[in-house]
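ARCHIVE CARD
Drawer: 12
Card no.: 0347
Subject: one protein chain, sequence and derived structure
Cross-reference: see card 0346
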Amino acid sequence: MRHRIFIALCGVLAGAGLCTVPLIAQIETLPVVEAVECGPFEASGCGDVFGDLIHVARRPSSGQPILAKRWVELPAAAAGYGWGYCPIALDVFGQELGFVPYSCDVADPTAVVEVDYFGRLSGGRTKERNNRMHLDEVVTTLKSAGFIYEEPTGRLLLGFDCPVTPGPRPTTIPACGAWKTIDSPMESLALYTRLMKYGHLQTDPLEEDIWSHGDPAQPTQYHPALGAEDWPKFHATVQHLLPANGGRPCFAGPVFEPGCAVPELLDDRDFVRAGIFLAGAADKSGRITVDLVQYLGRILKITLDTETTVSNPKTFPALVRDCWRGPDPPFPPGSDPGTEDLPYLPREECQVSDADPSLPNYDLFPAVQELFVDFGATGYERDEWMAHSTAVILPDGPDWLLDAAYDMRPWLFDQNGDDDGWVDLDLFVLASSDALRAIELVHNYAVPADLIDGPWPDHVFFDGFESGDFSAWSAAIGP
């Protein structure tokens, strides 16, 4: 049912108590970012991790970068010239930009498109222990909740003070006393990292917290972990966040099976939920692209083993475009090649193959060593994931329009286009972008729960105020 209402500015409504922050709302803060280790890119400096993040040529759908095999001056770790592997920069129109002769440098650096839209996702440039700290906070909150569900955009919605129901309750929604959305950017990023690496959220309750710095006389500290008592809290729509979608026996009484904490292949729902977590960590007015996802994977070490985590289990390498059919090497070792670049073949005559360690100078170029997540299992349908309705107040000329059951799907189609024909990483980016736009809409226009449920539910949005002005409304609702 739709009702037309007139709403004055928040500064005016504050006097009537209508602009207070709802109890279930969360205050967003920008993350404090500490210095980060460069990991396997240490030898060439952090620039290979965080610097020169630009749009580059990639294989459609998979998002693997295509590197040009070129005869270049080698990095400082080696002398002279040799084969190198260079990211191919694109301009704003998606056209490839050329290179400075015998270099990986872009011939026209003013034409590159920088990935300078990380926004809050820059919080990923923090130490691993900080990411894990936020995951621990999420797990602790999940354990304290009575029910775990999803809100209209797909983020996790936690119920508290819920009625106790014996046994599993996978398809019913209890009447909990309070609800809370996990919308912290850093907690969302921690969820994204864990799900992309492991395919679930189950950690080992006997995993030692190596970063705890308490009293050495105290017993060993462990990271929080979901217990057998927590699994029945997961609604059917979010049970895929458990090992084997909640179907694996991981507890024999109080004893945990450690194999349940190891990575498993992500399925279609895991990838979509990861995209929603990514959207929850991003700027609400930002954008998500293939380049951003791939660079963020590098920053978060999604495809690398770290001190306390392991890689995503299904990855593939970068691609190398070989356009040289002349003598190999093209010049005698140690000779100066001059100023004219090699006469490489036209692009359509080149060969493209997977990068592998047998390539010459493989160890000198981090870009050719990098691995990437295989997003092939991604399956997303807007009609399935974004079919929830929500109450929103939308601008309608000088007035505002209340829609108590707003369907976001037509608006998402207008913002992001059709969801047909996309696969792999492109489909993941679409799912993430849909979630981002949905979060933006809910943030800007959703009706706070305390305006719907009280303290004046029969005054605020009922037909009697369709044409009422603010003075009449104010008098009716009282001080």
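Annotation on reverse: Residues 124-299 form one domain. Residues 129 and 363 are 28 Å apart (CA to CA).
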